[in-house]
Structures are given as C-alpha cells and as structure tokens.
User: Which sequence fits this backbone?
C-alpha cells in the first residue's frame, strides 16, 4: 500500500535520494541494509585494530581511530533499525545512562587528545569508553546486564 502511495504521488524509491533512503532505512531492501551494516561494522573493527596497531606511534592515533571505530560500529546499527528507531532505542530509560556516558566518553577522549593533550586522560577515557560501550551493548541482550552483575557480585563476595 505504501509503495502504491509513493508511486501515485511521484515519490518512488528511484526518485528518493540516498540520504532520504538511509534516514528511512525501511525503504532500503533488507539485503542492502545488511550489506551497509556489514560494511560500516567492519570499518569500525578495522579502525579499532588500526588504532591499536598505531599505538606505538602515539596515543593520538590510537584514541582517534579507536573512537572512530566505536562511532562506526554504533552507526552500523542504524542501517538495521533505521536512525530514528535507533535514537529512540538509545534514549529509552533502561539505556539512557549508558548512552549518555558512552557519548560523553567518546567526546572526552577526543578532547583529551586534541585539545587538552593529556595522554593519561585519553587512556582513561578510552577505557571508560570501552566499558560504557560494553554496558550499552549488553542492554540489547535480555538479562545480560543482570548476568554480568551476578557474575561480578559472586567474584567479589
């Protein structure tokens, strides 16, 4: 029905720009969404690995590529869910704190490297970025956070 409406109103997929199609991921075919997700996710992994490989050259390259890798991996899910649905899911009450912390540490890592030029802070923010990203990711797996909390509780008790 939606396809018929678009054809009748002259808004067919071929006339719709790529940006509009990406913003409304449901207009992309499932195969295209999966391919875009894979490319973006793999780019994120490559950036993170490249950052680790460039660590001997300095913390600046590591922090930059590690952060770009996390941003790319996070953006990859927009192709599966659609950006608006992704943003709504990110800011649901159960992941609000994890999302805000993750975004904060992404920004603070780059600030520590490029503006403040504090290597120790950059390393700390990269570690916190990893932990926040992990906690955020676990929020999408049912009962995963509870399992991690129980695991750490039993180890500390």
Assistant:
């Amino acid at each position: 029905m939606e396809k018929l409406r678009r054809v009748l109103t002259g808004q067919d997929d071929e006339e719709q720009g790529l940006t509009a199609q990406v913003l409304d991921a449901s207009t992309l075919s499932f195969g295209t969404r999966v391919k875009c997700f894979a490319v973006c996710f793999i780019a994120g992994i490559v950036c993170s690995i490249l950052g680790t490989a460039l660590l001997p050259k300095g913390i600046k390259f590591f922090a930059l590529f590690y952060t770009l890798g996390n941003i790319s991996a996070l953006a990859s899910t927009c192709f599966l869910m659609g950006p608006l649905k992704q943003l709504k899911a990110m800011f649901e009450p159960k992941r609000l704190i994890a999302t805000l912390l993750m975004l904060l540490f992404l920004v603070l890592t780059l600030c520590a490297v490029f503006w403040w030029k504090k290597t120790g802070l950059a390393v700390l923010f990269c570690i916190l970025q990893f932990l926040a990203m992990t906690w955020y990711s676990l929020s999408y797996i049912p009962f995963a956070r509870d399992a991690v909390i129980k695991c750490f509780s039993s180890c500390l008790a």
